[in-house]
Design goal:
Blueprint lengths: L2 H14 L12 E7 L12 E8 L2 H13 L4 E6 L9 E8 L4 H16 L3 E6 L6 E4 L4
Parallel strand pairs: 1-5
Antiparallel strand pairs: 1-2, 2-4, 3-4, 5-6
Length: 140
């Protein structure tokens, strides 16, 4: 086997071991999920909703965005903010079609990341609303 083939095989093997495991993102992801606070890049606001999840650092944000994007959900795009917000968090933007399946898609995304983040109660904040709606893991 040639050296360059060996290096390629080693890189491929190490990528297989880099997947997220249960509880890898515990205490790194905020339970606050914002809905419709940002303008979408993938379409018009009347057609696309931006769901935002906050992470304490850029690496967990990138890991979470990648995990969500590789999932089976009907999403248009995921992206991580290039810098921190005013609270020191990186934002994971998830663009989803604005249709009757929107909240079902959000619920399924949160169920999928549940074992990674270990959040018992999610908090939803909707654009234009001052209140926060709490949703327990059991309800999801």
């Amino acid at each position: 086997m040639r050296l360059d083939n060996l290096e390629t095989n080693q890189k491929q093997t190490s990528k297989l071991d880099e997947g997220l495991r249960e509880n890898d993102l515990v205490d790194l992801i905020s339970p606050l999920v914002s809905i419709d606070d940002f303008e979408p890049k993938s379409g018009k606001p009347e057609d696309v909703v931006v769901v935002t999840i906050r992470a304490s650092d850029d690496e967990p944000a990138e890991d979470l965005a990648s995990f969500i994007e590789k999932g089976t959900h009907d999403i248009l795009d995921t992206e991580v903010s290039p810098s921190m917000d005013e609270d020191g968090n990186y934002l994971v933007f998830i663009e989803i079609k604005r249709d009757e399946n929107l909240m079902s898609t959000v619920r399924n995304i949160l169920k999928d990341i549940d074992k990674l983040v270990g959040i018992d109660t999610w908090q939803f904040q909707f654009h234009g609303s001052d209140g926060i709606v709490e949703v327990s893991r059991e309800i999801l």
